[in-house]
Amino acid sequence: MLTTNEYFDGNVKSIALKNGELPATVGVMDVGEYSFGTSEKETMTVVSGELVVKLPDQDEWKSFTDGASFIVEANKSFDLKVGVQTAYLCVYG
Amino acid sequence: MLTTNEYFDGNVKSIALKNGELPATVGVMDVGEYSFGTSEKETMTVVSGELVVKLPDQDEWKSFTDGASFIVEANKSFDLKVGVQTAYLCVYG
User: Fold this and answer.
1) How confident is residue B1, by pLDDT bands cut at 50, 70 and 90?
2) Which residues fall within 8 angstroms of residue A29, CB to CB, at 6 or more apart?
3) A-B interface: how many C-beta pairs under 8 angstroms?
């Protein structure tokens, strides 16, 4: 059975899967602003849409669109601005 | 609020979003074999994993892996074999 999760009152939803040997989620973020914390390394790839991201220890916001990826190390937090509904793939580890 | 759907007893789950002007879903298929019918044109892209597909009116199975897409016209059915949990993006219209 596939596991689903939701965050931020249902404005972010995800479905878990295995990506090769690594756990992953594919999900959608609705329009909004979010802060996430990582418990392990995450590689986030935009599948459709745009994530505007302030990475840990960075002052600047950076845009990631379809196919672009960014990495967040474990035990960090990062901020996201989402202007259009955006699908993403997050691979853990 | 983001809308989720599930099919085939929860072995396929999806989350709806807008992809530019077009409706779309991102989802996961668990290991299994499935037949889908289309009510409108669908462009399916493999995000992570592999879909082995028999397209409408075709006799041969064809493999699609990360980043690969196929199109199914409206009012057709197609068959899928899924050997590893696979994330996909489906854009309608």
Assistant:
1) confident
2) A11, A12, A49, A51, A80, A82, A85, A86, A88
3) 84
pTM of the model: 0.96
pLDDT of residue A64: 98
Structure confidence by residue, pLDDT tens digits, B24-59 = 999 999 999 999 999 999 999 999 999 999 999 999
Which CATH code for domain A4-92? Answer: 2.60.120.10
Tokens standing for B52?
């082995």
Is A48 in contact with B89 (CB distance < 8 Å)?
yes
Judging contacts by C-beta atoms under 8 Å, the chain B residues touching residue A13 are: 2, 4, 15
B22 in A contact zone (CB under 8 Å):
no
Q: In what order do the strands lie in the sheet with A62-65?
A: A32-37, A77-82, A50-54, A62-65
Strand segments, DSSP code E, in chain B are 4-7, 12-19, 22-29, 32-37, 42-48, 50-54, 62-65, 69-72, 77-82, 86-92
**Is the ipTM, as predicted for this complex, more than 0.90?**
yes
**Domain ranges, ordered by start, for chain A:** 4-92
Segment B8-26, tens digit of pLDDT: 999 999 999 998 889 999 9
